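One such shown below:

_____
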Amino acid sequence: MARKKIYIRVALLLLFVLSLLYSFESVSAATYYVAGDVGSDAYSSAQAQSTATPWQTIQKAANTMVAGDTVNVKGGITYAEGVTPANSGNATPGNLITYQSWAGTGTPIVDRGGVGGCFTVFKNFIQVSGFEIDHCTIGIMAFGTGNYFVNNLVHHSSSGSGLYIRNTSGNSYVYNNTVVDNVGTGINAWSGTGLVVRNNIIVGNTFGIGSDIGGLLIDHDYNLFYDNSGLSGHPEWGTDYMEINGIFAAPHDIHADPLFVDAANGDFSLQPNSPAINMGVDLTSSGVTTDIRGRARPNAGAYDIGAYEDPNLYVDGSAGLDTNNGSLTAPFLTIQKGADVATAGDNVNVRGGITYSATTCSNGVICLVNSGTASK
């Protein structure tokens, strides 16, 4: 009997220790804020967890964060700095180290003016999401495993690639990025195995997807390619795919102009008739539930390809159906259906010349209909 009591006490002690460890891990995860216009790197780690006292640089957060931590970076500001994480996350769910845009502030821009890399990741289990990354030598260069690069606009890198990924083991993931006009390859694998590439727009680079050596495992599909030039004088190397190293087309890839709204002036969102709309694969299980601007994915059907989800829903009182997905080619019948489905930032486009019944948005606010558009 005495021995049984000892076993019970030991078991209870183990449960107590495990509960303490779990509590410590949960409490230790921190959310920091960075604002390049009003922040200060002199603030303490505790202060930088308040929106009122953010740090000034992303690198300050990169030097501080550990597994499970997140930094929200204020948008509408250009950060002329390179970012190199000092620590790794780990494979435990919720223990990535996450760099993301600060919701409601716009898109943060990391711009090195053509000198130096923007995000250089030598660690594991890092996520970079919601940034415009431009005019770097290489937009994102990553060595490690378990890294995620999601919903970024990467353009005009001056050498190397837009994204240059080397896995040491396991997988890294490149999801829903727009990769445009980079010298070299849009998305390039240097070595290793297990790079997963889905729902990216890859336009105007030397190669679309490539590798430095042959025989690498690049699991790619559901990407859109356009106007990747290939290497001058070497057509056998390929254009959208670096065929010389064994990379070829995937079954669901698209080869067409993505129809950006105004690429010449930096607007890489999608026109309503873009071939990228509703053509991506569902990445809900991978945690991709918003776009670069924070809009919900998917909108009006399936996932869009690229960093920007189309914000438009359509209503046609003469030819639509409320069982449709609300896209341009499959509009809803009633404004009420559009109001019920729409989330913040969406536009409900209503066909004119038709009489519709009164409409109340799902949050109790009456939708205003002007010039064929109701915005919620």
Remarks:
- Residues 15-27, 368-376 have pLDDT under 50 and may be disordered.
- The radius of gyration is 23 Å.
